[in-house]
Structures are given as C-alpha cells and as structure tokens.
C-alpha cells in the first residue's frame, strides 16, 4: 500500500528491535536494522525507571524518498523499559511523481513493559507524500508514551506545500482496539486546518494516568503553542494535541510534555536526551 | 418529485432549529475561539466553517452516517452497531465525542417518542449491549433516522450537514460574534462549499484533522462559566 494507492517499485525494508528485562535491567537482545535503519549503542541513566535502556534511531539515507517502504517493529518483553527516539527530524522529500513513502511502525509492549517512543517530527517538504502508520499493542500493566508530530516545510516560501499525508495511530489492547486516530490530508489544506501554523502533533499515553494532566499543565505556559488534552479514563488513554508556530516551539513542546509525564510517573525529572 | 414530498417535509421538520436534538448546547470550539480573540466577526465565522467545521464533517461524520444509513436501510442492526463502535474508537477528541453521543442519544429519544421507524429499536439495541456509554454517536443515529424517515442517503447527508452548519452559525449569533442578517449571508455563502463537498465521493475511511477547533473544544477551565458544553 502506498499513499496514492499505486503499485510501489520500492523494496520493503523491515527492521526490528527486541528489548528484554534481565534482572531489572533492560537489554537490547535482538536487532535487525537493514539499510537505511541505523541505531546507536543503547545506554542507561541511573534516574530512569525499571533499568530503562535508551536508544537513538538514525537513518543512513537522509530521510524518506519517493516510494520508500519502511517498517519498524519494537518489541518490549515483560517488564522491559526503553526510551526510543531519533537523532533528528525525519525529512520526507519531494516524491517527484512517485507514489509516496510508507512508514509502518509497530510497538508491542508486554506485561509491565514501559516504552517511550518519542521520534522527532516528520518534516514534510514540498511535494512530499507520506503514509505514516503507528500501531501499538499494549498488554496488561504496560505503559506507553508516544509522540507523533509533523511540520509542513516550504523552503522556497513559494506556496508549494507537501503533496499528501495519510496518518494513522492505533492503540490495541488485549481484547481489541482501544483507539484509532487517523486523517488523510492534501498539503494544500494543511494551513487551513491548523489555522496557519506549520507544526502539529500529539502525545499519546496509555497506562500512565497521572501523565496527562501533568503534560497539559506544563505545556500551557509555553509560548507559541496551542494545546488541549483529551482523557479517556475508561481506556486509560490520554491524548495531548498541539499546534506549534515553528520547529523550535514544537521541539520544546515534545520535550516539556515528556519531562512532565516522567515527573508525574516517577517523581523525578528525566536526564535530558542530547541531540 | 411527488413521492419525495413526504420525506422532504420530514427532513425539514427534523432539521429545523426548533427540533429538540440538544445540538444547541454545543459550539464546536467556537466559544473558546471567541474568548481567545480568534473568532470576531462574519469573516472569521465563514473561514471557520469553510476550513474546519464543514471539512471535518465531510471527512469524519459523513462516512459513518453513510455506512449507518446503508446498514439501517438493509435492516442490518448488527452492522449499525459495528459502525457505532468504530465511530467510538475513532472519536479521539473527548469533548467532541461526548457531544456527539449526547446529541445522538437525544435524537434517538425524540424520534422514538414521535414514532420514527427504527428509532426505538436502535435505542433498545444500544441498551441491550450494556455499552450504552460508548454508543449512539450522532452521525450513526442520523443514518438510522434518515433511513427510518424514508430519506435517501444524499438527503440524509444534506440534512445532517445543514444541522451542523446552522448550529455553528446559531452559536456565533448567541455569542454576539455575528448579527442575525450577517449569519444568513454566511450561511448563503457556505452553501457552495457544502454542496461541493456533498457532491464529492464519500471517503473510504473516516478521518479527522481540524486541530484548531478540536483543540479549542479542549481548552476549557473547570468551573469557568460557559454558555456551551464545547
């Protein structure tokens, strides 16, 4: 499947990361990262919960092109904890007449697992076409904090927005789907829908009840942001949505919300992740 | 045309602002936007309708309404319930979800009282699931009611979209952001957008991206006196 429904000529590339808890410390026990996927060596901060491992995803190709078809699966074993982020934003390049890129991320979080999946925003360049799907399967007692954000970038400033964005984030529990957030948008409609801002995003949490109110309280004083929180208590889900006036405000929003969530859940601030 | 007169009269009745659907209690984020200085007059209201309210209804509510109408017309209540459950999963803005359920259930209650075919049956089916708090969304119920009134899909959609647009314009008048005559001018102008949108194919999958008004519905302080519930 591609953003335009056309047949893709690109070779699908599938990567996977397997985290396991071993005596209270999480280790990367399995990895398959074919080109263009690349990862850093996992490391730990003492202040992180559950022996959490931190890992940076990188791309050796410089972003998403044409009809790239990339898939990533992150599996969290029982009780494992990981913070997975990216080194930088993902640039989605002009599709140049091709069908568009597909990015399919699957997050499988076992019982008692804790995953922070916080990639930097996708930067949608003029003419870019992207189908972005994130599906999180959450087990009993697991925790998820995940971000999904986009920035519409028109470097020429000549009113040539991205081509198309199809975006879907799904949360699936042990007994079936819990929530599906999806949209399908032409780049020419982006600024009309956002009220003129170039950046939009959300942070979704599962199994982290205290995190939602803490995130919106931390975001409210920030300049250049317009944010609101949805609470679905019966499903243990919070969704923080925000518009940001530029990339700086967007990055600040993501960092601030994550830090507030961590403090609410553990009582102590996380160590900043350098990029 | 003659055989469409009765359904048309019923459509006009149920789409009238005096019909007790409960929709008057919601402003779709307009009250917040007005307080924040983002909606100040006819031009702003027109823009919000054209860029947020109408596109969101076309891309999100319309596919559910169409699916529910088809299922109800085919006398397939299980398919209607499945459509309602999917609408629940995809309603990821809590206050808009709550508003949609409240209006939907109010519509069901009123139509059951006045004997609209299918209304009391669907209300009872929702209750029988034991998941009443997660079902009865407005576009699904509108599909059921439209089928019950003998409206075709296009008529049902036009009535539902008109109700949303009228409700938004009415809220703008009550908030003092739009005069009564200006409201009519805005409604006349937006009708072109509505007609164009309804003439386009129904999206294969429901989806929503209107973050400005969606976030506005969420930005409400507890205890703050408000005219509207969203």
In short:
The complex is a heterodimer of chains A (275) and B (230). Chain A is mainly β and 275 residues long.
Task: Write structural notes for this entry.
The complex is a heterodimer of chains A (275) and B (230). Chain A is mainly β and 275 residues long. Chain A has one domain. Chain A contains three helices and 17 strands. The radius of gyration of chain A is 18 Å and the shape is globular. The relative contact order of chain B is 0.23. Chain B is mainly α and 230 residues long. In chain B, 67% of the residues lie in helices and 0% in strands. Chain A binds chain B through residues 167-168, 177-185, 189, 192-195, 200, 226-232, 234, 239, 241-243, and chain B through 38, 50-52, 55, 59, 89-90, 92-95, 133, 203, 205-212, 214-219. Chain A: UreD, UreF and UreG form a complex that acts as a GTP-hydrolysis-dependent molecular chaperone, activating the urease apoprotein by helping to assemble the nickel containing metallocenter of UreC. The UreE protein probably delivers the nickel. Chain A: Belongs to the UreD family.
The biggest beta sheet of chain B reads: none
Number of domains of chain B: 1
Number of strands of chain B: 0
Helical content band of chain B: 55-70%
Based on CA atoms alone, the radius of gyration of chain A comes out at: 18 Å
